[in-house]
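Practice problem 4.
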């Protein structure tokens, strides 16, 4: 499954508005500046500092600096006894669970996510934490349970009046779409992806809207609606270019459409572009080596690109 990273500016003045995870280095720098401004003179400041530390740890982990993330999170955990607010504890548990997932110890991660779910799901002001935990559970559980956790999270997000919880709807519809895609329930997958598009448009999240539409196109391709899929991906690539963003997945989909239409010379160009962009993601290379190998082979990429 493709992870959809939230399309937000690097604005960390409100930690409930996720910073842009496409730019973790810039996010970390902004968070560190905020940490210096907040201080620890009062219990409220201390609680805020703990929350900021958890997000610094997350930014470090996204950059592959796992040891640094571990040290930052330990710092946050050591400060927890000094605060009574629930939010800092929930954030620490979530980020500890994410680090454990990175370390491929899903059973230990599961304990943290379940604790967050149990503490937060019945508290309207903390529902967004419960949704985050359920979303993480949907990534580490068995296929059947993954779908169940996504549906739990969606139900919570849709019934909530809290904007922090409702902002999760687009991401969760994407997750649901991918679950359905994996089960080859293709018409239902398109429906889920289109709901994600509507949610992202409502939020004004332009890049996430484009990416969710590309998933609609991918599903069309799998339904052998190749010409429609190709036209859509071409349109989306132009939109990405206007936004000044390079996206490996859309190039990959264009290549796959052209490959299916027996247009290998044109396809090769996009396979090469997709390989160059996606092979730069160390996590993706580690998690989906066969996908990267296919792009390299069909793009006729020479070893100099490694």
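Answer key:
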């Amino acid at each position: 499954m493709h992870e959809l990273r939230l399309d937000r500016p690097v604005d960390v003045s409100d930690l409930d508005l996720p910073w842009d995870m496409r730019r973790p280095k810039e996010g970390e720098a902004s968070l560190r500046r905020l940490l210096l401004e907040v201080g620890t003179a009062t219990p409220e400041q201390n609680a805020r500092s703990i929350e900021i530390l958890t997000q610094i740890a997350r930014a470090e982990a996204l950059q592959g600096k796992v040891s640094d993330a571990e040290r930052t999170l330990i710092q946050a955990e050591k400060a927890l006894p000094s605060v009574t607010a629930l939010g800092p504890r929930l954030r620490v548990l979530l980020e500890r669970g994410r680090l454990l997932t990175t370390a491929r110890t899903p059973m230990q991660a599961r304990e943290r996510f379940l604790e967050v779910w149990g503490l937060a799901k019945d508290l309207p002001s903390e529902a967004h934490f419960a949704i985050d935990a359920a979303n993480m559970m949907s990534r580490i559980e068995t296929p059947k349970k993954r779908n169940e956790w996504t549906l739990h999270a969606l139900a919570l997000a849709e019934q909530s009046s809290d904007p922090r919880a409702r902002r999760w709807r687009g991401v969760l519809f994407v997750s649901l779409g991918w679950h359905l895609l994996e089960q080859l329930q293709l018409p239902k997958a398109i429906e889920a992806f289109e709901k994600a598009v509507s949610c992202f448009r409502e939020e004004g999240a332009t890049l996430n809207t484009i990416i969710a539409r590309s998933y609609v196109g991918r599903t069309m391709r799998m339904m052998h609606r190749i010409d429609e899929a190709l036209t859509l991906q071409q349109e989306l690539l132009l939109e990405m270019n206007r936004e000044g963003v390079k996206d490996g997945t859309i190039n990959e989909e264009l290549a796959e459409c052209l490959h299916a239409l027996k247009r290998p010379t044109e396809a090769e160009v996009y396979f090469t572009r997709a390989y160059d962009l996606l092979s730069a993601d160390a996590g993706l290379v580690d998690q989906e080596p066969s996908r990267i190998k296919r792009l390299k082979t069909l793009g006729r990429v020479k070893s100099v690109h490694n």
